[in-house]
Amino acid sequence: MNLSYRLGWLGFRAMFAVYFRWRVFNPERVPRTGGVILASNHASFLDPPLVGCALPRAINYLARESLFRFPGIGALLRSWNSVPVDRDGGGAAGLREILNRLIAGGGIILFPEGTRTADGKLQPARSGIGLTVVKSDAVVIPVRTFGTFEAYGRNHKFPRPFRVAVKYGRPMKFETLRAEAKVCSKPRLKEIYQEVADEIMAAIAKLEPRAD
After folding, report:
1. Of 205, 47, 35, 27, which is closest to residue 133 (Cα–Cα)?
2. What is the pLDDT of residue 118?
3. How many domains does the structure of the chain reveal?
4. CATH number of the domain that residue 111 is part of
5. Which is more confident, 1 or 200?
6. 163: in domain
């Protein structure tokens, strides 16, 4: 962690501990080193810092490309290991940078649902995360946040002091589907992307707010 990241990491940890009375379950399942994809549900703007600051290693985050155009904000986002992506979170340049960070041994937070939930319920997974998983060799950790929708969902203008939690699931590796993806047809490849995404979302749905 560089100085800026560490200060932000400490600040968010203090906020989650004091204001949101957070709980963290099974962070030891996340490898301390090496490429890792943290695949989380997405209920609130609180999710990225909650998933990241509960871990002792630096994590890469996605941020809208347009934010990097502002000198101060752009510099801060870069110091926090943010990856610029287009509005939809896709794009060749964004994917290439995500893969580069994973190859370099970094961890990155991705949201299979693609956008924040409108009602607090889990949404179907989009195939984009499947593409990223198949094109990388990184281990995937399913992650689920709890209480973030109630604390700061789409209908809230300011965060409320609702208790939040984050749970890290068991590693997923997808060796079979990754091997098939190297030799299959294009129509089958698209199916594989969605299968991977659906399998990750199913693993997220099974997570409960307790250690196991």
Report:
1. 35
2. 94
3. 1
4. 3.40.1130.10
5. 200
6. yes
